[in-house]
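Dear support,

We are seeing what looks like truncated structure output for some complexes. This example has two components. We would appreciate it if you could run it in full and send us the complete token output so we can diff it against ours.
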Amino acid sequence: MPATRTSPAAQAVAELDDLNLKLARGQRMLRRLKDEDVQIATADKEVVFREDKTTLYRYKSTAKRTIGVPVLVAYGQIGRYTMTDLQEDRSMLRNLLALGVDIYAVDWGSPTRGDRWLTFEDYVDVYLADCIEHICRAHDLPAINLLGICEGGVFSLCYAALYPERIKNLILTITPVDFHQDQAEGRLNHGFVNLWTRGLGDDDIERLIEANGNLPGELMSYVFSQMTPGATMSKYNVGLLDTFDDEKRLLNFLRMEKWLADRPHHPGEAAKQLLINLYKNNELVRGEFQLGGRKVNLKDIKVPVLNVFAKDDHVIPPKTTQALRRAVGSNDYTEIGLDGGHVGVFVGGKSQGVLGKGIADWLKKRD
Amino acid sequence: MNETSKSLAENWAAGQQAMWKPFFPWTAGQSGEPKPAANSNPLEEQFNELRDTWQASVAKWTDFAKEATQGELPSADKLREMFAPAAWAHGAASGPGVFDAALQRVLEGPRYAVLWDLDRQLLELQKLTLQRDKAVAAYQAVVQKAWNAAFQRFAKALGSDQQTSAKLTWRSLTDKWLAVANDTLIEVHRSEKFIEAQRHMLRAASDRHLQERKIAEAWCEAGHIPTRSEIDELQRHVVELRREVRLLRRATPTGATPAAAAGARKAPARRPRTASKRART
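Here is the complete output from our reference environment:
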């Protein structure tokens, strides 16, 4: 077969041939793969505390401890904590463990209609607070390191502002703070959730929650898919086809699919707080957000703060999280901007060596 | 109007006129019959007015009967049933008539009262379903416009670069199309029209969903089954009670949970919050 073909007909035939070969290869791989081959969040861990649907895990150490104070990782309700350990070679948790960090992670479980009435207060004052109390008691420590991710970062900010004595160092990753800075950089593909939420009336949100009990995970998936329409429409054709060259790539694709499919419903009342009080009214950065009658004043956060963001985060645009610098009362504020998007920070190949090391190095200096 | 209905309406109208004719032998429109002299005396005037009122009433009832046969109001069969003596009698062979059924609903209590209401609820659901479908169609129209714009841009991009397009492979063509479609759709997704169409769609879906629930709950109530709203309310009470229990435990060292006890030992007590506080209140 000639190396280069000049005839359009010959080119077309060759292309069709390649495509068919790829499809056949993919079909063979998919037939061979079973659900048990697609596992996520497999790092070795044990349950150390449970309360209602909340589970606190402690990860088994894989290296000599280099940091004395443990880190509690708190994800949000829009997605599951399993993102932090998607696969062996793309895992923030494994990277931190390998660097000698003692890791705990909180799993909020899968809320159902019965959890409709849970509020931010329940997550901050009860579940997160009790997990922290458990760790403090287990290690006989007055305070621990808290690492919040996305909405879990908002929980962490609220907790750190209300219970500063329990936090030694605060780490935030891809966490929204000023919800109205979504177009500060003028990037059209950024901040659609902010725009979408502001387009809804308070009563629209209340009717939505009343009708469904919770904020349906499927609805949030749909809204997210509108942020990247090209990727959404090509995912199961061109995107999947691209993975047929390499089984490892296909498995990566399937693991991500597994995580995406596991999007929990957001408890209704807490969802109202997230969408109305935070996204619409921007109360957090204004110092007006209230939990159980107490104002969350970010200026009360005086412990060292590390804020990690993704430079191309279309969900939490950089400026929405970088607003934290001016909002907190800490004199020790550090930012790390990583290449990649919202989820790419955790699963992208580029960030693997950077994210874990950046956090561990920062912690070591403040241990 | 079919023949049977027409004849029923005409018969009914004729019957009404025949009934009132003896009272008002001079009724207008009956040629050859004497008419009262105008302004003869006040009593006569009043009587004339009464006559006109009755005439108008008869005409209205005649129209009503005709409309009824066109199906806009109770059907001819229903009218017949309404005026048939057998339907008024209990234990008639054809079963209870509509009036008896209404009485029965009242007598049998909430179950049938709810079922009576269900007709209106179902109509409301139908209306909301139509509204939702309209909202979906309006949303799809906005999206379709975006796709059309994307295709036009794509065609233009290909046309403007003939040299490149000659070398295009299916994959590069697909990638180009995806890039153009992605940019166009993102632009549209940020437009006021799109946001508003999506908001309407979501709202219409919620409203319909809630109406559907209302009907389901009517059936639940009729069948003595707890409704979604009742369960929601119950769960709310449970959540609020649990919050109160937690606060009480934390306030009582002997009853404190291990975590709370540890908290009390190593850190200042948690700041109290309103236990029954609801979101956004």
